[in-house]
Design a protein that fits this description.
- The complex is a heterodimer.
- Chain A contains three helices and 13 strands, in the order αβββββαββαββββββ.
- By secondary structure, chain A is mostly beta strands.
- The radius of gyration of chain A is 19 Å and the shape is globular.
- The two termini of chain A are 25 Å apart.
- In chain A, 27% of the residues are buried.
- Helix content of chain B is 21%, strand content 28%.
- Chain B starts with a helix and ends in a 6-residue tail after the last strand.
- Classes of the chains: A mainly beta, B alpha+beta.
- At the A-B interface, loops of A face α3 of B.
């Protein structure tokens, strides 16, 4: 508890300036030299005013990843960008394969070199006082031809993101809306669909609802829930995240802190 | 599963008491084994009681698990009830929250003009305290209730316990895998448990009497230290599985199917019972 308090105090100490740069998930790129991150979000950095890069530092060693976004143009009030990501999940997957606690893939499986590529188009425009973003992307999973179909990790969020390596390719479509509610409060809602044509687990849907409290242009707190649906190997399944656990039967909401500097 | 179905067909079984039946588990490719056995044997009716239903077990690659006891029957089943057994008392609260919930499954078999009850148990395997003793008493209480009501029953399952008169009662040296230390031993030392299932033998009729058992223990063993055929310890070395009734078994009808080595990690115990 003590270290958590220290972190929060430290974050508050960074609060200064007044730039509206929350652009994660939109077609806008971070301004040059700007950093942005969150508890459950990657670190993003503005290369220049129309390009940024992002990576998840906590996973970087086991799941090397990098996403590059470029804002191309503005047309009829829509800002258009493309986003390109590369992922190498093999070290992470092999590290969680085996026997014992936290080995979540059975030991008889082995993961070859897998490379994931994402290529998305994002379009963002202002609506009222908020922003609307639409996105469409092609997902490619390379190297998964020999993957055993029983080696999957059949839980929400994870299965839809690894399914591309088993299917070879997929599509991701989605949209986000963020809009002010009152004062420092705003709301965010998004929806994403993952499609894997030809697979028996071909459809996944995720939607997230967040209430955002903006402390300043440098810090904001988010609380909400995510609803997921998918056709998993065991059948269709709806789930609210975070999940309830036997130890916390009442459940708790999704909490995130986002900062920029 | 096909071997199991073939064995069930060969045995011409009327009632099956099953344990560790998966209905929705990653480890068994999400096959509903209750339905599969109904579809592939002469069994017509089934009831199921889960002992472990977890969306995701983050160890040993288990993932999604739903496993438990099942009763299959040629005749309609009704009034099925899952009776919760005591949880292990030797685990911390966190582990206990995610651990298996052992139970007794009972159901009425609607045999024409003469219904009777089938009772299925799978007791704790690895507890090192008195959990199993509590569970046996709870199992006996279920049987006593039926008996007191004048109802006939056949009962049984995996008690994870040695017969009261077993010659050997410590298998820790046999069960320990290379590299494992004695500190990790679980459920292999039965020396303090020699009388724990005596009340069942005292009150009801076992398919294998203790007299028969003691004449040649090897004939009645139902479990092995390992299920790896290449391991030198691969041989049946203890009896953990039992059948009881409050009427009588057909004399000399009990069979311990030690030939069925690939069908299960326990040997099936069968016996003939005449509906009163």
């Amino acid at each position: 508890m003590r270290w958590l308090c220290v972190i929060i105090i430290t974050l508050c100490g960074w609060v200064h300036a007044d730039t509206n740069i929350w652009s994660s998930g939109t077609a806008y790129s971070l301004p040059k030299g700007q950093w942005e991150t969150g508890l459950f979000q990657p670190v993003r950095y503005g290369l220049n005013d129309d390009q940024d890069i992002a990576l998840h530092p906590f996973f970087a060693l086991k799941l090397p990843n990098l996403v590059f976004k470029k804002t191309w143009t503005k047309k009829n009030s829509w800002t258009i960008a493309s986003q390109h990501g590369i992922y190498y999940p093999t070290p992470l997957l092999n590290s969680i394969t085996g026997t014992g606690k936290f080995k979540i893939v059975a030991p008889q499986y082995e993961f070859p070199a897998l490379i994931g590529l994402t290529n998305e188009i994002l379009a963002t425009r202002s609506i009222a006082k908020g922003k609307l973003t639409g996105k469409a992307g092609l997902l490619l999973g390379l190297g998964g031809g020999d993957l055993d179909p029983l080696s999957t990790i059949d839980i929400p969020l994870v299965y839809p993101r690894l399914a591309v390596y088993y299917n070879g390719w997929g599509l991701r479509l989605g949209s986000d809306v963020v809009a002010p509610i009152k004062g420092r409060w705003s709301g965010f809602i998004d929806g994403d669909v993952f499609l894997y044509p030809g697979s028996s687990s071909a459809l996944f849907f995720e939607t997230k609802v967040l209430l955002i409290w903006t402390k300043s242009s440098r810090l904001r707190l988010m609380v909400g829930y995510k609803l997921t649906y998918g056709k998993y190997p065991f059948g269709s399944h709806w789930q609210i995240l975070p999940p309830k656990l036997p130890t916390f039967p009442g459940g708790w909401p999704l909490i995130d802190i986002q900062i920029t500097w | 599963m096909e071997l199991l179905a073939a064995k069930i067909t060969e045995m011409d079984v009327d009632i099956l008491l099953l344990q560790e039946v998966d209905t929705d588990s990653k480890r068994s490719a999400y096959i509903d084994q209750v339905q599969w056995l109904l579809d592939n044997t002469a069994m017509n009716y089934g009831v199921y009681a889960s002992m472990w239903e977890v969306q995701f077990v983050p160890s040993d690659g288990l993932g999604r698990v739903n496993t438990g006891n099942a009763i299959l029957s040629r005749w309609p089943l009704s009034e099925a009830e899952r009776v919760q057994l005591s949880l292990r008392g030797d685990q911390d609260d966190l582990t206990k929250a995610f651990y298996v919930r052992r139970n007794v499954l009972r159901a009425m078999v609607n045999y024409p003009d003469s219904p009777f009850w089938a009772v299925d148990i799978h007791a704790s395997a690895f507890s090192n305290d008195d959990t199993k003793q509590k569970q046996y008493l709870e199992f006996k209480a279920v049987l006593d209730e039926l008996d007191d009501q004048g109802k006939n029953f056949i009962a049984g399952g995996d008690l994870n316990e040695l017969p009261p008169s077993a010659v050997k009662n410590n298998y820790c040296d046999n069960d320990r895998c290379p590299g494992e230390s004695a500190e990790d031993d679980e459920g292999c030392d039965f020396s303090n448990e020699t009388t724990w299932i005596s009340p069942l033998f005292d009150s009801y009729v076992p398919a294998v009497s203790l007299v028969d058992y003691l004449q040649d223990e090897n004939l009645y063993f139902t479990h092995a230290s390992t299920h790896d055929a290449s391991d030198e310890r691969y041989q049946w070395n203890r009896k953990l599985d039992y059948l009881f009734t409050n009427t009588n078994w057909v004399a000399l009808s009990a069979v311990t199917h030690q030939d069925a080595v690939l069908e299960s990690d326990h040997v099936a115990v069968g016996a003939k019972w005449v509906v009163p």
